[in-house]
Amino acid sequence: KDYYVSRVVTRDWQTFSEPSDITPPGFASPDAPIRWDNATIIAFQAYPDKSLGGKSSGLFFSRRDDGSEIWSEPRPFLREALTLPWNTGGRAIDPTLVLD
């Protein structure tokens, strides 16, 4: 079965909207969304068997501008994490974005 990063909306923590997908299939493990530069940004990962079509995973993010319901296509970041000398498995998982 395919997997996605999806979102639901609630105002009262008792009723929720239907899930809507933020990503195409093959992305998972989202971090908590952050607010930055008049947008909401969320980080997540890709598993090797789906999104990248190869042996490596990767770290990605999507952005939604204020006033929009449309999320950007997943964009990779920290690609060098896949090639660090100690990363013999070629995986990068569970990204977290931190504002300083």
How do the helices and strands line up, and which of them pair or pack?
Blueprint lengths: L5 E2 L12 E2 L5 E2 L5 E3 L2 E8 L11 E8 L9 E3 L23
Antiparallel strand pairs: 1-2, 3-5, 4-5, 5-6, 6-7
Helix/strand class = mainly beta
> What summary fits the major beta sheet?
5 strands, antiparallel
Beginning-to-end CA distance, first to last residue: 38 Å
Q: How many helix segments?
A: 0
Strand tally, please?
A: 7
Report low-confidence residues grouped into runs of 5 or more. Answer: none
Your description of this structure?
The chain has 100 residues and is an all-beta fold. 0% of the residues lie in helices and 28% in strands. The protein has no helices and seven strands. Strands 3, 4, 5, 6 and 7 form a five-stranded antiparallel beta sheet that branches. A two-stranded antiparallel ribbon has the order 1-2. A hairpin with a 2-residue loop joins strand 4 (34-36) and strand 5 (39-46).
Main features:
100 residues; mainly beta; 5-stranded antiparallel sheet; two-stranded antiparallel sheet
Quick overview of this protein structure:
With 100 residues, the protein is mainly beta. It has strands at 6-7, 20-21, 27-28, 34-36, 39-46, 58-65, 75-77. The mean pLDDT is 85.
